[in-house]
Design a protein that fits this description.
single chain; 848 residues; alpha/beta; 6-stranded antiparallel beta sheet
């Protein structure tokens, strides 16, 4: 098989449409089994499942996999999975499985690989599975793993008697609060060794021995120090951790997936499911964390030559997937941000920018904030990773006379500056390839230029050294190691510094603050969107198209409503001034600050109706992610209390609620229009549309865990059954219930099922001429010469009046799939075309 995107169009079984389901102990395989008839009737071809392998106990998401070779028992049994797959097969459907290759959950003994490493250290057969620095510069960590889980310092915990020997699940362990740690058999004195061999504590003598040893602080301390791990307070992990992790999450340890043995052992069960025909597609989580994503994907393709494989790759505006990757495309954040931008009015940029700066006192220079937060993340959240890279860089510099006398601080600052200046998540330079690709050269040289401008105080040749290293102009073992680790780090820095920090600090228009987005870029022009999807059809026609995911900051419908603020900046600014004056008595000592207050008002407008409980939970998370006045690591209790009091008292005020609802009421219908328009574009644009659970009706969810709440599928089943006898006009009359969205999904997916040739990888993407006074309010494109999508944009400015605006329909006879009306060729008035239902989907009837 030739591993390139075009061959995958031919080889892989490409889904018609996917539905993402979040599995956990509250939504199991048998719950999904009951949904199969509903999803089939809706037109879904594949269930896109969150990770199904065993995760840490009570995991709400499954991304903390602790056993790659077992189906998560909290989700059901192998028989349940087999029955679920059989039910899908009976209806011509399939399963897409989410894989997590970068890391594992290491919360406790349930991860036998990690437990064995803690027990035996470097002698463990699993010691090389994890990316651990056994030669740490810290003498306390040489040959040991730092385990930063204690609530206080080791010394204080030991003095308080919190560290004790105990039995847990039939074995002798060291315990502290709810944590358990193994004991290396050779480290045990003989009396403990005898106890450890007993299946359980029996008799007064054994219990007395444990009490005696726990009471002997010196002997217990000596035993603990002989272990292959070093216990520390959780705070110490921020600076001393000696294993690679997922982002800055200490309980998710990075794997050496580049090792062939690790790869095949961690994919054995998935491989078996593939061979059984249970799995049709694979979604790869966080490939940017891998040492060599391309190598991983080639190995994965060898296991699954016929599977539809997509990657969770966050693409920047001018970036594309590496052509050599044997995948069908990405999970669609690039589509999400482009289609969302269509509904942002560029005329609102100037007034909203000016008001944001005036009201909050914050800078409106997003580019500077973006850089600042990335640099801060490197300096605060990724200290161990930066230190490890500095050690490598010092060794490399020592071999060059010009850099031999550089100070560690200079090297550290230059490296962090270059990482903060990189405009993409990471590059994909492979030393074994001999030379970097053209796009990698572009991004690295661009970062070097930006870093030199940013830090005039540093020797510019330092940036030249880093550039030459990353572009393989300097070669050697240490050099290759530096390149690999630098590339693994930069994606995590962008995710934490930008998505999880800057996106909660720059609040000009929250609908732009989405994963993979650029809040500094205000909207997307229609022709810009068309150009992007002509290229998409040519290069990645089977990529996923997403609008809501388990990781989005806001659901598609929240963004659709918030985008309307760009059309009414004056009215919005007036409302914020009024609300702020109304709620000023609720602030304490200027807290909460104006920036988080501004975020709060936008959140209410986008997600209303919103309960106080959900609002408080979201605002607490937003404030801690922003790290401007409080944070997860260092909570400022006075600020947190002031924020909760402000949110609670505001939402309890009848006068404020009445005013808020009066402001939102005129936005409701326009928000529905935006939602339907982006949904129809997703269902007909080049790619595979994905529907996140619950988004088949209006869904006003915020960031996780809010967007992972249980979904009322019984309601959806009833509504799907009810709507089959209703006309388009009757459907639209029930718009407040969300019925139009459910109906539109079914209508479009039915067309994709009946006429697949219009939407497959070989169908064309063409635009059609729109003329008239309101032409900027229309998005029109044609697929496969036989399907035409017509949707409105900037709905408030349109004001339900298309005036003289027309679209040129090609020759032939056409039918509106949504209304059943015939549509002639020629110049067609949009007012008439969209009279019965606010969007249109035309299909050629004559076969031309």
């Amino acid at each position: 098989m030739t591993l390139n995107a075009s061959s995958l169009v031919f080889d892989a079984k490409v889904p018609r449409a996917t539905c993402r389901l979040q599995f956990n102990e509250h939504f199991r395989l048998r719950d999904a089994l009951a949904l199969v008839p509903y999803l089939a009737d809706l037109g879904i071809s594949h269930v896109y499942a969150s990770p199904l392998l065993t995760a840490c106990p009570h995991s709400p998401h499954g991304y903390d996999v602790c056993d790659f070779n077992e189906l998560n028992p909290e989700l059901g049994t192998e028989e349940d999975l087999g029955e679920f797959v059989a039910a899908l097969r009976e209806r011509g459907m399939g399963l897409v499985l989410d894989l997590v290759p970068n890391h594992m959950g290491i919360g406790g003994p349930e991860n036998r690989w990690w437990w064995d490493v803690l027990t035996w250290g470097q002698s463990s057969p699993f010691a090389e599975y994890f990316d651990i620095d056994w030669e740490s510069a810290d003498p306390q960590l040489r040959g040991k793993v730092l385990v930063p889980v204690l609530a206080d310092t080791y010394q204080r915990e030991r003095e308080r008697g919190e560290l004790r020997l105990a039995y847990h699940e039939g074995g002798l362990v060291l315990s502290c609060a709810n944590h358990f740690f193994p004991l290396a058999p050779p480290s045990l004195p003989e009396r403990l060794a005898q106890i450890s061999r007993q299946p359980q504590v029996t008799g007064n003598e054994t219990a007395g021995t444990l009490r005696e040893l726990n009471a002997n602080a010196t002997e217990l301390d000596g035993l603990i120090r002989r272990q292959h791990y070093h216990l520390a307070c959780w705070h110490e992990g921020a600076g001393k951790l000696n294993y690679r992790r997922f982002f800055n999450v200490n309980t998710l340890a990075g794997l050496r997936m580049e090792d062939k043995g690790v790869f095949y052992e961690s994919h054995a069960l998935v491989c078996a499911w593939l061979k059984q025909g249970w799995v049709d597609g694979l979604r790869v989580d966080h490939p940017d964390g891998l040492r060599d994503p391309g190598q991983y994907l080639r190995r994965l393709r060898s296991l699954a030559p016929k599977a539809w494989i997509i990657v969770e790759k966050i693409l920047q505006t001018e970036e594309s997937l590496p052509e050599a990757w044997p995948v069908a495309g990405s999970t669609g954040y690039d589509f999400l941000n482009r289609v969302n931008g269509l509904f942002v009015d560029p005329n609102g940029e100037k007034p909203l920018t000016e008001f944001y700066a005036q009201f909050t006192g914050e800078s409106s220079d997003y580019g500077s904030l973006h850089h600042e937060k990335k640099y801060r993340a490197l300096n605060e959240l990724f200290v161990p990773e930066v230190s490890r890279l500095c050690g490598l860089l010092l060794g490399i510099a020592a071999a060059h006379v010009r850099f031999r006398n550089l100070k560690r601080e200079e090297i550290r600052d230059a490296m962090m500056e270059l990482a903060a200046s990189l405009a993409v998540y990471r590059t994909y330079v492979r030393p074994q390839d001999g030379a970097p690709g053209q796009s990698d050269v572009f991004w690295i040289e661009q970062a070097e230029t930006a870093a030199r401008r940013q830090r005039l105080d540093l020797d510019p040749e330092l940036f030249g050294l880093l550039r030459d290293l990353l572009l393989l102009r300097l070669r050697g073992e240490q050099e290759s190691e530096f390149v690999a680790r630098f590339q693994q780090l930069t994606g995590a820095v962008t995710a934490k510094g930008v998505e999880d920090t800057a996106f909660y600090c720059f609040n000009r228009l929250l609908s732009l603050n989405e994963v993979g987005g650029d809040p500094g870029h205000f909207g997307v022009a229609v022709e810009e969107f068309h150009d992007a999807y002509r290229r998409q059809q040519a290069r990645w026609p089977n990529s996923m198209l997403g609008t809501s995911t388990h990781d989005t900051k806001r659901s598609e419908d929240v963004r659709a409503r918030l985008n309307l603020l760009s059309e009414i900046p004056e009215r919005w600014c007036e409302a914020v001034r009024r609300w702020s004056a109304m709620n000023e008595p609720r602030r304490r000592n200027q807290w909460p600050d104006r920036n988080i207050e501004y975020l709060f008002y936008q959140t209410l407008v986008g997600a209303w109706p919103l309960s106080t409980e959900r609002a408080v939970a979201y605002m607490e998370k937003a404030a801690r992610e922003a790290r401007q006045h409080t944070s997860w690591a260092k909570r400022i209790k006075a600020y947190d209390a002031a924020l909760v009091r402000f949110v609670t008292s505001t939402l309890e005020d009848p006068e404020f609620r009445k005013d808020l609802q009066s402001f939102i009421a005129p936005l409701m219908e326009a928000g529905y229009l935006n939602s339907l328009a982006q949904m129809l574009i997703k269902a007909t644009a080049p790619g595979v549309p994905d529907f996140y659970q619950g988004c088949d009706l209006w869904d006003l969810s915020l960031v996780d865990p809010d967007n992972r709440r249980q979904v009322d599928f019984e309601l959806r089943k009833r509504m799907l059954a009810e709507m089959k006898t209703l006309s388009a006009e009757e459907i639209w009359q029930r718009r407040d219930t969300g019925l139009p969205k459910l109906w539109l999904i079914r209508q479009t997916l039915t067309l994709r099922r009946n006429r697949p040739e219009l939407f497959d990888g070989s169908s064309r993407y063409d635009t059609l001429p729109v003329h008239g006074a309101k032409e900027r309010h229309a998005v029109v494109f044609m697929r496969g010469q036989g399907s035409i999508t017509v949707v409105p944009r900037l709905a408030l400015g349109l004001n339900d009046d298309w005036a003289d605006t027309t679209v040129e329909i090609p020759g032939g006879t056409w039918r509106n799939e949504l209304t059943g009306d015939d549509v002639p060729e020629g110049s067609i008035a949009l007012a008439g075309l969209l009279r019965k239902f606010p969007v249109a989907l035309l299909v050629r009837k004559d076969g031309r």
